[in-house]
Inverse folding.
Protein backbone atom coordinates (compact mmCIF):
# COMPACT_ATOMS: atom_id res chain seq x y z
CA UNK A 1 0.00 0.00 0.00
CA UNK A 2 1.36 3.40 -1.01
CA UNK A 3 1.11 6.18 1.55
CA UNK A 4 0.40 9.63 0.15
CA UNK A 5 2.22 12.63 1.55
CA UNK A 6 0.41 15.55 3.11
CA UNK A 7 -0.19 18.34 0.58
CA UNK A 8 0.00 22.09 1.25
CA UNK A 9 -0.23 25.42 -0.55
CA UNK A 10 -0.47 29.11 0.33
CA UNK A 11 -2.87 31.63 -1.22
CA UNK A 12 -2.40 35.39 -1.01
CA UNK A 13 -5.67 37.30 -0.99
CA UNK A 14 -6.40 41.01 -0.84
CA UNK A 15 -9.45 42.64 0.68
CA UNK A 16 -10.91 39.41 2.04
CA UNK A 17 -12.04 39.65 5.68
CA UNK A 18 -11.24 36.90 8.20
CA UNK A 19 -14.91 35.99 8.55
CA UNK A 20 -15.19 35.33 4.82
CA UNK A 21 -12.19 32.99 4.82
CA UNK A 22 -13.64 31.19 7.85
CA UNK A 23 -16.96 30.78 6.02
CA UNK A 24 -15.27 29.39 2.90
CA UNK A 25 -13.08 26.97 4.86
CA UNK A 26 -16.13 25.84 6.82
CA UNK A 27 -17.55 24.45 3.58
CA UNK A 28 -14.76 21.89 3.13
CA UNK A 29 -16.06 18.35 2.95
CA UNK A 30 -14.77 16.15 5.79
CA UNK A 31 -13.73 13.52 3.24
CA UNK A 32 -11.12 15.93 1.81
CA UNK A 33 -9.36 15.96 5.18
CA UNK A 34 -8.38 19.54 4.43
CA UNK A 35 -7.99 22.57 6.63
CA UNK A 36 -7.25 26.23 6.18
CA UNK A 37 -5.29 28.52 8.47
CA UNK A 38 -5.07 32.24 7.75
CA UNK A 39 -3.54 35.44 9.00
CA UNK A 40 -4.60 38.92 7.98
CA UNK A 41 -2.58 42.11 8.08
CA UNK A 42 -4.28 45.18 6.69
CA UNK A 43 -5.96 44.28 3.39
CA UNK A 44 -3.75 41.20 2.83
CA UNK A 45 -4.71 37.72 3.98
CA UNK A 46 -2.45 34.69 3.65
CA UNK A 47 -4.32 31.38 3.60
CA UNK A 48 -2.42 28.14 4.19
CA UNK A 49 -4.30 25.13 2.88
CA UNK A 50 -3.29 21.64 3.89
CA UNK A 51 -4.80 18.22 3.30
CA UNK A 52 -3.94 14.62 3.99
CA UNK A 53 -3.35 14.06 0.28
CA UNK A 54 -3.08 16.02 -2.99
CA UNK A 55 -6.64 15.12 -4.04
CA UNK A 56 -8.06 16.73 -0.90
CA UNK A 57 -5.94 19.83 -1.44
CA UNK A 58 -7.17 20.16 -5.03
CA UNK A 59 -10.79 19.89 -3.90
CA UNK A 60 -10.25 22.49 -1.14
CA UNK A 61 -8.58 24.90 -3.57
CA UNK A 62 -11.46 24.39 -6.02
CA UNK A 63 -13.98 25.13 -3.28
CA UNK A 64 -12.17 28.35 -2.33
CA UNK A 65 -12.09 29.48 -5.96
CA UNK A 66 -15.80 28.80 -6.36
CA UNK A 67 -16.52 30.67 -3.15
CA UNK A 68 -14.43 33.64 -4.37
CA UNK A 69 -16.25 33.79 -7.69
CA UNK A 70 -19.60 33.75 -5.91
CA UNK A 71 -18.45 36.54 -3.59
CA UNK A 72 -17.24 38.65 -6.53
CA UNK A 73 -20.53 38.31 -8.38
CA UNK A 74 -22.37 39.38 -5.23
CA UNK A 75 -20.45 42.65 -5.14
CA UNK A 76 -21.70 43.76 -8.54
CA UNK A 77 -24.44 46.34 -8.68
CA UNK A 78 -26.68 44.73 -11.28
CA UNK A 79 -25.99 42.71 -14.41
CA UNK A 80 -23.97 45.31 -16.33
CA UNK A 81 -20.39 44.12 -16.96
CA UNK A 82 -17.74 45.82 -14.79
CA UNK A 83 -14.11 45.36 -13.75
CA UNK A 84 -15.14 42.49 -11.47
CA UNK A 85 -15.99 40.53 -14.62
CA UNK A 86 -12.44 41.07 -15.86
CA UNK A 87 -11.07 39.72 -12.57
CA UNK A 88 -13.71 36.98 -12.50
CA UNK A 89 -12.75 35.83 -15.99
CA UNK A 90 -9.17 35.17 -14.89
CA UNK A 91 -10.30 33.51 -11.65
CA UNK A 92 -12.61 31.31 -13.72
CA UNK A 93 -9.55 30.10 -15.66
CA UNK A 94 -8.04 29.09 -12.31
CA UNK A 95 -11.30 27.25 -11.55
CA UNK A 96 -11.04 25.48 -14.92
CA UNK A 97 -7.51 24.44 -13.97
CA UNK A 98 -8.75 23.10 -10.62
CA UNK A 99 -11.48 21.11 -12.40
CA UNK A 100 -8.90 19.72 -14.81
CA UNK A 101 -6.64 18.74 -11.90
CA UNK A 102 -9.58 16.90 -10.35
CA UNK A 103 -10.29 14.99 -13.57
CA UNK A 104 -13.46 17.00 -14.28
CA UNK A 105 -12.86 17.78 -17.96
CA UNK A 106 -16.45 18.76 -18.79
CA UNK A 107 -16.53 21.19 -15.86
CA UNK A 108 -13.15 22.59 -16.98
CA UNK A 109 -14.53 23.22 -20.47
CA UNK A 110 -17.63 24.88 -19.03
CA UNK A 111 -15.45 27.13 -16.86
CA UNK A 112 -13.36 28.15 -19.88
CA UNK A 113 -16.56 29.01 -21.78
CA UNK A 114 -17.70 31.09 -18.80
CA UNK A 115 -14.31 32.86 -18.69
CA UNK A 116 -14.62 33.73 -22.38
CA UNK A 117 -18.17 34.98 -21.88
CA UNK A 118 -17.19 37.21 -18.92
CA UNK A 119 -14.15 38.55 -20.77
CA UNK A 120 -16.07 39.24 -23.98
CA UNK A 121 -18.87 41.07 -22.15
CA UNK A 122 -16.39 43.25 -20.27
CA UNK A 123 -14.23 43.97 -23.32
CA UNK A 124 -17.31 45.07 -25.30
CA UNK A 125 -17.93 47.89 -22.77
CA UNK A 126 -15.08 48.22 -20.21
CA UNK A 127 -16.14 49.83 -16.94
CA UNK A 128 -13.53 50.47 -14.24
CA UNK A 129 -15.73 52.73 -12.12
CA UNK A 130 -15.93 51.89 -8.44
CA UNK A 131 -19.59 52.96 -8.72
CA UNK A 132 -20.33 49.68 -10.48
CA UNK A 133 -20.08 48.02 -7.05
CA UNK A 134 -22.87 47.75 -4.54
CA UNK A 135 -22.77 50.30 -1.75
CA UNK A 136 -20.50 52.71 -3.69
CA UNK A 137 -21.93 55.93 -5.10
CA UNK A 138 -21.16 56.92 -8.67
CA UNK A 139 -20.12 60.40 -7.56
CA UNK A 140 -17.16 59.09 -5.55
CA UNK A 141 -13.81 59.60 -7.26
CA UNK A 142 -12.36 56.11 -7.39
CA UNK A 143 -11.16 53.65 -9.96
CA UNK A 144 -9.54 50.25 -10.15
CA UNK A 145 -6.19 49.08 -11.48
CA UNK A 146 -5.08 45.55 -12.28
CA UNK A 147 -2.09 43.98 -13.95
CA UNK A 148 -3.99 41.29 -15.84
CA UNK A 149 -3.60 42.98 -19.20
CA UNK A 150 -5.16 45.68 -21.32
CA UNK A 151 -8.29 43.59 -21.97
CA UNK A 152 -10.14 40.91 -20.06
CA UNK A 153 -9.44 38.42 -22.85
CA UNK A 154 -5.76 39.35 -22.57
CA UNK A 155 -6.01 38.66 -18.83
CA UNK A 156 -7.50 35.24 -19.51
CA UNK A 157 -4.68 34.42 -21.92
CA UNK A 158 -2.07 35.71 -19.44
CA UNK A 159 -3.55 33.48 -16.74
CA UNK A 160 -3.43 30.50 -19.09
CA UNK A 161 0.27 31.19 -19.79
CA UNK A 162 1.01 31.64 -16.07
CA UNK A 163 -0.59 28.29 -15.24
CA UNK A 164 1.75 26.51 -17.68
CA UNK A 165 -0.77 23.73 -18.31
CA UNK A 166 -0.51 22.34 -21.84
CA UNK A 167 -3.77 20.42 -21.34
CA UNK A 168 -5.72 23.53 -20.28
CA UNK A 169 -4.18 25.62 -23.08
CA UNK A 170 -5.15 22.95 -25.62
CA UNK A 171 -8.69 22.90 -24.22
CA UNK A 172 -8.82 26.72 -24.55
CA UNK A 173 -7.70 26.54 -28.19
CA UNK A 174 -10.33 23.85 -28.93
CA UNK A 175 -13.07 25.95 -27.36
CA UNK A 176 -12.02 29.01 -29.32
CA UNK A 177 -12.12 27.11 -32.60
CA UNK A 178 -15.84 26.56 -31.98
CA UNK A 179 -16.52 30.27 -31.38
Amino acid sequence: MTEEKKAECVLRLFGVPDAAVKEAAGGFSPQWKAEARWKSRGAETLVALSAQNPAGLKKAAQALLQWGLTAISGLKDGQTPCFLDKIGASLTVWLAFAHLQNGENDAARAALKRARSLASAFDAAPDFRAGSLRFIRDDEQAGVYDDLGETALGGVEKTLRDLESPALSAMWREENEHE
Remarks:
- The mean pLDDT is 83.
